[in-house]
Amino acid sequence: MADTQLQKYGMLSREQLVYLFDRFSVLVSQPDVKKRIVDAVSDKQEPVAVTTAIQEEIFLEMRVDPSFGLACLGKVNMTYENDQDLMIRYYRFIANEELACDEAELGPEEFAEKLQSQQKLQEQQLEMLKYMRKFHLDDQSAILEKLHQQMEDANFDSEPSVLSSEQIQEIVRRRVSPLFKPR
């Protein structure tokens, strides 16, 4: 295929991005592609190099210059920030890439443990969010601000991404009756 027939300008359309995300998801779930990533790790290569190569192959299928396509991925957040469905698909695409890399690097047992740990964390986060909904919106904002501060302090590690009901009650209590602070 001649290089001039590849898209090199503009921005990838929503349809092109959806195709890329869906195709990538299908490919990285296939055993031969998983083996390809594992083999790269065994050869001391970065798994992301293989997932990037897979994305480049998909771009070629789409008649998009791979370098241009990869550059467009870096602009998805800004270009499509108001398209909630596409942004969800984009973040799922990123998560799929991370999972494919983790699976190759960690091996089956350690990867299964990681998935189980992530699921438990998500369940805890969901319970926290359900509990938070019982409070006034201003209180919810204060709780989320405290959570953000806690995560920032922990360099966005996953463990501090949950507050206990006691911690939430304490945040709300302090908002209702702030401690006297002399000047």
Oligomer: single chain
Rg (C-alpha, Å): 22 Å
Q: Which stretches of 5+ consecutive residues score pLDDT under 50?
A: none
| Total number of strands | 0
Strand content: under 5%
Q: Shape, please?
A: globular
What does it look like?
The protein is mainly alpha-helical. 72% of the residues lie in helices and 0% in strands. The protein is globular and about 65 Å long. The model has no long low-confidence stretch (mean pLDDT 89).
Blueprint of the fold:
Blueprint: H1 14-28, H2 31-42, H3 47-61, H4 66-73, H5 76-79, H6 84-106, H7 108-132, H8 137-153, H9 165-176
Give the gist of this structure.
The protein is mostly helical and about 180 residues long. It is built from nine helices and no strands.
Search tags:
183 residues; mainly alpha; 9 helices; 72% helix
